[in-house]
Design goal:
Layout (H helix, E strand, L loop, with lengths): L1 H14 L4 H23 L11 E3 L5 E14 L2 E11 L6 E2 L1 H5 L9 H13 L2 H12 L5 H28 L10 E14 L19 E15 L5 E3 L5 E5 L3 H14 L5 E8 L3 H10 L4 E4 L1 H15 L4 H16 L4 H9 L6 H16 L6 H6 L7 H15 L8 H15 L3 H7 L4
Parallel strand pairs: 5-9, 9-10
Antiparallel strand pairs: 1-2, 2-3, 3-4, 5-6, 6-7, 6-8
Helix pairs in contact: 4-5, 4-6, 4-15, 5-6, 6-15, 7-8, 9-10, 9-12, 11-12
The structure holds zinc ion.
Amino acid sequence: MSTLLSRIFAERKQTGDLDLEAVEMAFRAALHQAGATALSQLLRFPEPAADQRTIPCACGSQAHYRELRSRHILTALGEVELTRPWYLCPLCHRGQFPVDRQLDIENRDCSPGVRRLDAIVGQQGPFDRGREQMKVLAGLDVTAKSVERTAEAIGADIAAREQREIRKAVQLNLPIIVGEPIPILYVQMDGTGVPVVKKEIEGRKGKTDGQPAHTREVKLGCVFTQTGWDEEGYAIRDPDSTTYTGAIETAEEFGRRIYLEAWNRGWSRAQKKVVMGDGAEWIWNLADQHFPGSVQIVDLYHARQHLWELARRLYPNDPAGQNAWMKVHQKRLLDKGKIEKLVLALRSIESTNADVLEKIRTEADYFARNAERMRYPPFRKQHLFVGSGVIEAGCKTVIGSRLKQSGMFWTVRGANSIIALRCCHLNGRFEDYWEGRRAA
Ligand SMILES: [Zn+2]
């Protein structure tokens, strides 16, 4: 440190210049090194006193102190050496390092400080970018693999805790969350495909639900609140009120997950409850099962998309014809919530093309099935959202931007770990999790 200082002063005297960046980085490196040396001294644990050389073993017997053992761990200050007592059980031959447990580094190469950084960069972008951020921002040399391992291990722990909470929620009556009444609470759900490694699709029937090959569907849900609307009456989402939860899992499993999230967000004290999604059947099954009595709304833009597809089939290569048809069917019927009339109009379309007839029938059924969820004018009169843009944006920002970059192929376990970690972080719960992680 002092040689570094005298070198910097000498250089400055000689040239009159100070390369601030070079100096600050050199100081950071030197301070890290000094810190690592000091930390290594702190981490040199003595032999236990004579009366503390026996500790309980998990097998029920006693482990005895054998010797001091050393290893390296990576800390926020760089690599340090740890020396601590090792105990061995003569009965089951299990060795243990009580100090490692106490320091939260049992079976880990990295300190908690480094693991927290790994988790934050690992949930945010590709693991190799995380490695780069660790180098540039924290001055730490880690491998992409270690960022991946750590981020996935922490995500898996978060996911496991969620599952414990979900199991508890199923078995017990959930405690009422006290607080102010919430004027309007929304639950939105959607699905989005994530590319997976081959073994995750083997034995599954091919393309289902329009999912492209080699992907598995992540079910994502969000919960947010609304207290007001703008001068024109359009709904305004409460800032920072959105939380996300999701996983690659069955609709049944996802239902319990989104139910718990909504509950924790104050479902029981919401004065108006709204569930929104596209037309996917699983969404409405879950809405009926877990959120009875809520207002159900099909995303208006999805509904319009259904009409557009039909318009293109009815008037191929005829934009004017398509527009004219949409003017009637979208503007005068769908947007006005006159779904029964729309269904009648669709069913009365004649065509000699069997494919087109089949498409018309499918779409008419879709509108008939969702008619009550498409009463857009009364929804608007209540200043409710009519589009599920929040969850669609969530599919892109929460899932797509992290898990769908080119060349990425996930295991279900890996993807679910990163999704859990990412949602936890985006929901502003990571710090609480990290502080509380050793309590459970
Ligand atoms: Zn033992």
